[in-house]
Design a protein that fits this description.
GO terms for molecular function: metal ion binding; nucleotide binding; nucleotidyltransferase activity; tRNA binding. This protein is of the alpha+beta class. It has 4 domains: about 5-140, 2-Layer Sandwich (Beta Polymerase, domain 2), CATH 3.30.460; about 140-225, Hydrophobic Seed Protein; about 230-385, Hypothetical protein af1432 (Orthogonal Bundle); about 390-450. The chain contains 21 helices and 15 strands. It has helices at about 5-20, 30-35, 50-55, 105-110, 135-140, 150-155, 160-170, 175-185, 195-205, 210-220, 225, 250-260, 265-270, 295-305, 310-325, 335-345, 350-360, 370-385, 400, 410-425, 430-450; strands at about 25, 45, 60-65, 70-75, 80-85, 85-90, 90-95, 95-100, 100-105, 120-125, 130, 145, 175, 280, 290. Strands 3-4-5-2-1-10-11 form a 7-stranded mixed beta sheet. Strands 6-9 form a two-stranded antiparallel ribbon. Strands 7-8 form a two-stranded antiparallel sheet. Helix 12 packs antiparallel against helix 13 and helix 14 (about 295-305) packs antiparallel against helix 15. The protein is globular and about 90 Å long. It starts with 6 loop residues before the first helix and ends with a helix.
Length: about 450
């Protein structure tokens, strides 16, 4: 079977061939082509040495930052291409990287060093598919299996354990028995991996079509207790509440699957109820309550995200969503919604709505969430009308108030707070002349009381 390859990729392979070298598309790009997906990028492997690759493409821009591993990045107008010399690898050190890279002469030698059979295929239009380890058959059977002995592959690079989970989750496949057993046997090796590398794989799992599949597998392989031990307390935790038909862990996974594939929302879904096991109280009727679990959960999530080396901005967004996720219980009028927009942020408010809708859907069967869709429309209306919801949107500032005769200090903020309260109720008051008039009336009222 022939696959449709972008012209710039075919031309690159052709140019290497015209100089007497072999060249193939390799790895994930071949896997995606067989699955009928458009690869996000294309990797090329060749028997040309790095210096030969640079010479062949001397008229083009090349980036040499990976040259010690045999990789040259060719910058093309359409996209950049990684071109890597066939290689075999010496013994790995620290379960992370090979001691040194050795160049190989045959494509089959290069493919033998790769992690999974579905990533150990190569293709060009002249020779066709090279598949020495049965990757195409494993794709057809929806199997994730290592190339060769799974223990050896995972001992070489411990991150491959999480990569196996990620491919299973992204593709909706299952793990071959020996591969699964090896993952579980040496899962403790994950402790040796940097948090940055763990975070990258975890985020890809969370952004898959069915992230709960990956989280359950991480739990089954005894990895969850290593990377997010805080979630272990939610497993089997009975909520003892008529409004919830699942334990906390299964509720979390349901919410996770029902949120859109936006990283901030998926992370908030994963951690939104993590505080429940630490806040449960039982009333006289035997019903469980979780007062303050939103605040406790936000604090816990902040520590987890810090441990995962996440950015301050991502952490702030996720913890804000968790802290505010229980506001769906509040009966908020227009003024309350404006306060909510102010606390959450205009750029995050619809993330919160996504989280709240999913949270309600996963609480118990047949729950009605029409009020949340209505609330979402009200928020859109407020934003579309550009109605003010924070002080910086007032048509007046501290300098204007000082010009009315007030001295700098606490009083300026108090006046702005008072004006904001009035504008929240009546957006039409947000005109400088009207706001100044309100201040003058307040001055006059105070003077008449003296």
């Amino acid at each position: 079977m022939k696959y449709i390859i972008p012209k710039y990729v075919s031309e690159t392979i052709g140019k290497l061939k015209s100089h007497g070298y072999e060249a193939f598309i390799v790895g994930g790009s071949v896997r995606d082509l067989i699955l009928g997906k458009e690869p996000s990028d294309y990797d090329i492997t060749t028997n040309a040495k790095p210096e030969d690759i640079v010479e062949v493409f001397k008229e083009h821009k090349t980036i040499l930052t990976g040259i010690e591993f045999g990789t040259v990045v060719l910058v093309k107008e359409e996209n950049s291409l990684e071109i890597t010399t066939y290689r075999i690898e010496d013994k790995y050190i620290d379960g992370r990287k090979p001691k040194k890279v050795l160049f190989a002469n045959k494509i089959e030698e290069d493919l033998s060093r790769r992690d999974f059979t579905i990533n150990a295929m190569a293709y060009n239009k002249d020779i066709g598919l090279i598949d020495p380890f049965g990757g195409k058959e494993d794709l057809e059977n929806k199997i994730i299996k290592t190339v060769g002995n799974p223990i050896d592959r995972f001992e070489e690079d411990h991150l491959r354990i999480l990569r196996a989970v990620r491919f299973v989750t992204q593709l909706g496949f299952h793990m071959e028995e020996n591969t699964y057993d090896a993952c579980k046997k040496i899962s403790k090796s994950i402790e040796k991996i940097s948090m940055e590398r763990i975070r990258q794989e975890l985020f890809k799992i969370l952004l898959s079509d069915r992230p709960s599949y990956g989280i359950r597998l991480i739990r089954d392989l005894n990895i969850l207790e290593i990377i997010i031990p805080e979630l272990m307390f939610t497993i089997g935790f009975n909520q003892n509440n008529p409004h919830h038909d699942k334990d906390v862990f299964n509720h979390i996974l349901c919410v996770l699957d029902n949120t859109p594939p936006i990283l901030e929302v998926r992370l908030a879904a994963l951690f939104h109820d993590i505080g429940k096991p630490h806040t449960m109280t039982i009333d006289e009727k035997g019903i469980g309550h979780f007062y303050g679990h939103d605040r406790v959960g936000a604090d816990m999530a902040g520590k987890i995200l810090k441990r995962l080396k996440c950015s301050n901005e991502l952490t702030k967004t996720v913890t804000t969503l968790i802290r505010e996720h229980m506001t769906h219980h509040a009966k908020l009028g227009e003024k309350g919604l404006k306060r909510l927009i102010y606390r959450v942020g205009e750029n995050r408010i619809f993330y919160l709505m996504d989280l709240q809708k999913s949270d309600r859907i996963c609480s118990s069967p047949g729950v009605n969430i029409d009020f949340l869709y209505e609330r979402e429309e009200k928020i859109k209306d407020i934003l579309n009308k550009k109605e003010p919801y924070e002080k910086k949107q007032l048509d007046i500032d501290g300098n204007d108030i000082i010009n009315l005769g007030y001295e700098e200090g606490k009083i300026i903020g108090e006046i702005l707070d008072s004006l904001m309260e009035k504008v929240l109720d009546a957006p039409g008051l947000n005109k400088k002349d009207k706001l100044i008039e309100l201040i003058k009336k307040e001055i006059s009222a105070k003077e008449s009381q003296i």
